[in-house]
Specification:
single chain; alpha+beta; 9-stranded antiparallel beta sheet; 13 helices
Length: 626
């Protein structure tokens, strides 16, 4: 509608009572003739502007290069077949049908603590299985069930006996022990007798006949197989666990792909994350650097030549490399706000904007538990030219201009050739972690000038976890119940002239902290005067009215009881640098995973994470109390 002069405004308003809105949903060329040549050219109004923009963004600075159309890869692989724990440990084979996390992390489940039985639930389960085996055998063997209930039984905790305080202090634990005393079989006690060099019938009053003894020995083999199938644990303490550093240390080795008679070692100096991968290991700086000898006399080296088609790399939010293509909304460069020092963000932006279509993906499948070494890559481009590509990370390991990804570093500071091996460890992709059986928080207390090991969760003798503060309060109350508490101090009656003799405050040398706080005091390292380490100490258990010398409060978690349950108790030292200002959080829990062969593995593992900062125990010295 063209604009006209309105002489009568009312007539004009009535003409526009029903306004119309023009909507365009498509833009397309509509030729007016039968010749479609010009319509298909997609002509633009200003081609010079297009050429100028292409020149401005550097579109004409590209190389006269071709695109890869065919790739041929040559590689050699060997199998990781040897494992060694910490210092002084023996060398053992590393089969591929077991996850490596289980081999490294598995801990022994302590079934005794301070000479007292613990984990009542597992002992009862073993006893029920032993009773089931005796019943299934029948005859004279089944008649021994009552004898086993009598000789391999649980005792009723006595609240008056100090050694039973850890069981009688907690009402539910006391009830459970009292319910099974004299009624159930302690199945793990049978296992302890046999592992100690005895037999499964040593405690019986009369020795069974030879035929029955053979039957009991065969049944014990089934009991031991069942027990070992519950969860994986070593016959001796885990030699890879370093209690002074709260982390694992181990080494593996494999035949060198280029020289099978030479071993290539890989060392993990500190592993505590719970997920094992190639970046946890460093290559040894010399052949046989891990001190692991060949596990077999004739190591196998596989050489492969693989042909495949390269494909362009793509990722979520990647800009489209073509001109005049609408971007998806996932691509948002506004969200990237790099500073002048954020080199990583700048590199990502440079990669996305300029070199996104210059990277290609070459899929390569490897067997679990192998070491792969790529010899080279032959690329055939669209011009028919062939190019031999070698490792970009070749050179000395200490060369700062060398660039490499997904390759282990060299242990130590020696200037040796870099490692271009690709480790495919037999590690699990995912696993299930149970509720922590034990939790310890190591934190610094600047007011008391010491480090504390706070047992935030412990495992009671019946096998159930309990908050450390509640368990400590109940145990102290049990000790106090056996001590006659003296009457409180009552000041004498006020008499004229004697008011100045009555003190309004009481002087105390030191106060007490909850029994779940275990102190660590600084001591000099042996032979050194400047470096220190932390030694586990003990707070005295001071009970009102107790005339006996105060006892030392012992930790109730296996994480902090290092050396206490041995025949000759040993002190426990912790490296001072392992407890930073943020602290450390250590937990012990069951891990469970399903391996690629379908078998389920369960083990007891330790995890360490960063703490939540400093803490205060409330410990005070030389103060007055109202």
């Amino acid at each position: 509608m063209s604009l006209v002069e309105l002489k009568n405004i009312k007539v004009g308003q009535r003409a526009f009572m029903r306004p119309t809105i023009t909507v365009y949903n498509r833009l397309e060329g509509r030729p007016r003739t039968h010749n479609f040549d010009r319509a298909l050219k997609a002509e633009i109004r200003d081609p010079l502007w297009m050429i100028s923009k292409q020149w401005q963004v550097g579109e004409f600075q590209g190389d006269d290069a071709a695109s890869p159309v065919l790739a041929k890869l040559q590689m050699r692989t060997t199998r990781i077949d040897a494992y060694k724990g910490g210092k002084g440990s023996h060398i053992s084979p590393l089969p591929a049908e077991r996850p490596m996390e289980m081999v490294v992390e598995r801990q022994r489940l302590g079934m005794r603590r301070a000479a007292q039985v613990v984990h009542l639930d597992l002992r009862l389960a073993a006893g029920r299985y032993w009773k089931k085996l005796l019943k299934s055998e029948g005859g004279a063997v089944a008649d021994l069930i009552d004898a086993y209930k009598e000789k391999y039984s649980f005792t009723d905790p006595d609240p008056a006996v100090e050694n039973d305080h850890t069981r009688s202090a907690h009402p539910r634990t006391w009830q459970r022990f009292r319910a099974v005393a004299g009624r159930s079989i302690d199945g793990y006690a049978i296992i302890e007798d046999v592992l100690g060099g005895g037999t499964a019938f040593d405690r019986l009053d009369s020795s069974p006949p030879a035929e029955v003894q053979n039957q009991l020995t065969a049944l014990f083999g089934k009991l031991q197989t069942w027990w070992n199938g519950l969860f994986q644990q070593q016959d001796e303490p885990n030699d890879s666990w370093q209690p002074e550093r709260l982390e694992h240390k181990f080494a593996v080795s494999a035949p060198n792909p280029d020289a099978p008679q030479v071993r290539t070692g890989y060392v993990a100096e500190e592993y505590y994350q719970g997920h094992l991968d190639w970046y946890n290991l460093d290559a040894a700086d010399e052949p046989n650097g891990s001190d692991i000898e060949p596990a077999n006399a004739q190591p196998e080296v596989k050489e492969k030549v693989i042909d495949f088609f390269p494909t362009n790399i793509s990722f979520g939010g990647m800009p489209d490399p073509r001109w005049w293509t609408l971007e998806e909304r996932e691509t948002s460069f506004v969200g990237l706000k790099p500073d002048t020092t954020d080199l990583n963000k700048l590199l990502v932006m440079d990669f996305q904007l300029q070199f996104a279509n210059d990277w290609f993906l070459l899929p390569l499948g490897l067997e679990v538990g192998t070491v792969a070494r790529v010899k080279g890559l032959m690329i055939t481009d669209s011009f028919g030219e062939k190019t031999w590509v070698e490792h970009a990370g070749q050179g000395d390991d200490q060369d700062w201009e060398r660039w490499s990804m997904f390759h282990p570093s060299i242990a130590g500071d020696r200037n040796v050739p870099a490692s271009n091996d690709l480790l495919m460890l037999p590690a699990v992709p995912t696993l299930l972690e149970g509720k922590p059986l034990e939790e310890v928080r190591l934190l610094r207390d600047e007011m008391a000038n010491m480090v504390w090991g706070l047992e935030s969760q412990i495992t009671l003798p019946d096998g159930q976890p309990r908050r450390g503060k509640e368990a400590a309060r109940e145990l102290r109350a049990r000790y106090q119940s056996n001590v006659a508490v003296p009457p409180p101090d009552v000041p004498p009656a006020d008499t004229p002239g004697d008011s100045e003799l009555i003190a309004s405050a009481k002087y105390k040398i030191v106060n007490s902290v909850p029994e779940c706080w275990i102190p660590f005091i600084p001591v000099h390292r042996p032979g050194q005067q400047q470096q220190i380490e932390l030694q586990r100490a003990a707070m005295p258990r001071i009970l009102p009215g107790d005339t006996e010398p105060p006892q030392k409060i012992e930790p109730r978690t296996n994480l902090l009881r290092q050396g206490l349950d041995e025949m000759n108790p040993q002190p426990y030292f912790l490296r001072e640098e392992e407890v930073p200002r943020a602290g450390a959080h250590v937990r012990l829990s069951f891990q469970r995973t399903r391996w690629y062969n379908g078998r389920v593995y369960t083990w007891l593992g330790i995890r360490k994470t960063t703490g939540r900062g400093e803490g205060s125990s409330g410990l005070k010295f030389d103060y007055l109390e109202n």
